[in-house]
Design a protein that fits this description.
homodimer; alpha/beta; Isopropylmalate Dehydrogenase; 2 domains
Chain lengths: 349, 349
């Protein structure tokens, strides 16, 4: 890909910022030739980190900012005091068309609120959602909402489904992705009113949209569908439960390999295979939760990630920008009759 | 323990019933001397299975039933047509005081509905909940509700917390268990109105109840609290997400060990340690979801379990019966002022 656009980076957000941001940008530069960066942060700290990175310097414009939104700030404080912060100014540059997307590893709540207020929602979208990619037994799936909306009505869920469809096609490259609604059972009558109404609406969208029906918690990792749609409360808990379970098993697995001399030896023999496995579920590979449904692309990197993880978050923003993600959401809304009453496009399923 | 009471068994429920029920009862008999069984099912099938189990025969009364509630039946059909079923009659025997508790591996929805209608809720409890034990990095925790109530108000959640407290003390033997409310963040203002109201009420219960505050999805496996309280929708999805994630990692781990000759060799050396690990998260060990809040003890075994798993589900019922679980719930409701306006007991925390 020889994309040619600019990504805004909040250099001051994240546990090890700006070092991981600079180093991550340098990784991403090699992976995505043609991409340029606008890096917002304290130039006195950033410049020395760029010293030995000549190529990165050539494609990066540093925009000096004094203020930083810390992780400890509440959303209201961040909104009030963060007007000149690296995060706000990076988001502004997307609004102003200077950058195609923004990546930040900073305060999640603040990023969500500022992005929403600054970028606004896309026409036809009532609420933005947080989406992320999950590893599954079958490959990769996208799940949303992961926490932007604690409560959702049926129409929100339907919009999430359409945005998820565009995400799966655009970022994951899935052909005719299938979509499931997260519920407590697969039978029609299961769940609360919002989810039943959303299911009915998605069924009515016909063959152009591959609605699988309800899926359960274990279908996420099974990869039963390419898209999992949920309200933000449930989705957030599913996401974090996955992380917690993976950590538990990692801990128990460590205990198993330390339990005897023979087991330690076994670990040494199996090490290479185990590393491959670790890579398959490496959280850094799946770094980059996306706020979708806004007029600009905003990607949230995990706060504790390293440069490799940050580069992956940049990669998500690049994929979305390069593939015209937001235009495709608008097209999707129109195609499924959720935007304006136009003709429903018939697509091969 | 030399408990002396009777457990009713639905011999016809479960994928491999009645074989796993008979064999599971025989395992449980050895573990819990003094326990007797009333086994409800088709005696023409059960009797041959009992032939070589003299000791089990001595403590088991077979109650012949013709009808069976299948897994495919909807709840309404099960209620209408299942009046003479093994499940209904087994539950009746708890209602009639002939058995201290009932265990079934049959249709979950039917068991829930029949148990609720037949046994009714305990005084002071508005809705029963499903509780189960989870393995954690720190040991074991109990989580509820896992699916009995799709929507819950604040008072339901408070009652679940008190029932969870009694469960942790009674079944897990935890001294002064801590309780967390499952939410999307630990800050006070996170989540929806019901959960915030429940949190405020639990805080007001004072030192006698160790309320930790909000916990997130990853706190379940971390064992941050001994009790995790949730509405049934979220709890069910967390439970099944855990199962799905464990299956995904097991699959990837298998791939890792099969990936090369060296890895295969590594597996052989580490096998014993890995088996220990597998035992720690063996779903059969954690078999036995309990409907709590009813006037009788009702335990749901996983439908696909084997005799070992079924014996563990019997074990949960035995633990609860032996420890006067339901009396303790009533005491708990009184102690925390949720039942009648009595004095709040001060307990050391």
């Amino acid at each position: 890909m020889s994309a040619s656009f600019t990504i805004a980076l909040d250099a001051m957000g994240g546990d090890n910022a700006p070092a991981i941001v600079v180093k991550g940008a340098d990784f991403a530069r090699r992976r995505f030739p043609g991409v340029r960066f606008r890096m917002f942060g304290d130039q006195a700290i950033i410049r020395p980190l760029m010293k030995r990175r000549k190529r990165l310097r050539e494609i990066t414009e540093i925009v000096h900012t004094e203020d930083v939104i810390s992780n400890e700030m509440t959303v209201s404080v961040a909104l009030r005091k963060g007007r000149q912060s690296s995060m706000q100014l990076a988001i502004n540059s997307v609004r102003d068309g200077e950058a195609a997307g923004v990546v930040s590893a900073g305060n999640t709540g603040a990023l969500m609120a500022i992005a929403k207020l600054t970028l606004r929602t896309l026409p036809g979208i009532d609420r933005p959602a947080i989406a992320a990619i999950f590893p599954t037994i079958r490959g990769e799936s996208v799940m949303l909402d992961l926490g932007a909306n604690v409560e959702c009505d049926a129409e929100n869920l339907v919009q999430f489904a359409i945005m998820g469809d565009v995400f799966a096609r655009t970022v994951l490259g899935t052909v005719d992705p299938t979509c499931g609604l997260l519920n407590v059972g697969s039978e029609e009558m299961k769940g609360h009113a919002e989810i039943q109404q959303a299911s009915a609406t998605l069924r009515e969208m016909g063959d152009a949209f591959s609605f699988h029906g309800f899926v359960e918690g274990d279908d996420i990792a099974a990869g039963t569908t390419d898209i999992i749609v949920s309200d933000g409360f449930t989705g957030n808990i599913a996401l974090k439960t996955t992380e917690g379970t993976a950590r538990l098993i990692k801990e128990f697995l460590g205990d198993a390999f330390r339990s005897s001399l023979s087991s330690r030896l076994g670990y040494i023999f199996a090490r290479r295979g185990l590393r491959k496995m670790r890579d398959r579920i490496d959280p850094r590979r799946y770094n980059g939760a996306v706020f979708i449904g806004l007029t600009g692309i905003a990607v949230k990197s995990h706060g504790g990630t390293d440069a490799f993880g940050f580069a992956n978050a940049i990669g998500v923003a690049v994929d979305m920008a390069a593939n015209g993600f937001n235009d495709k959401i608008t097209e999707g809304l129109e195609a499924f009759g959720r935007f304006k009453p136009g003709p429903v496009e018939a697509a091969a399923s």
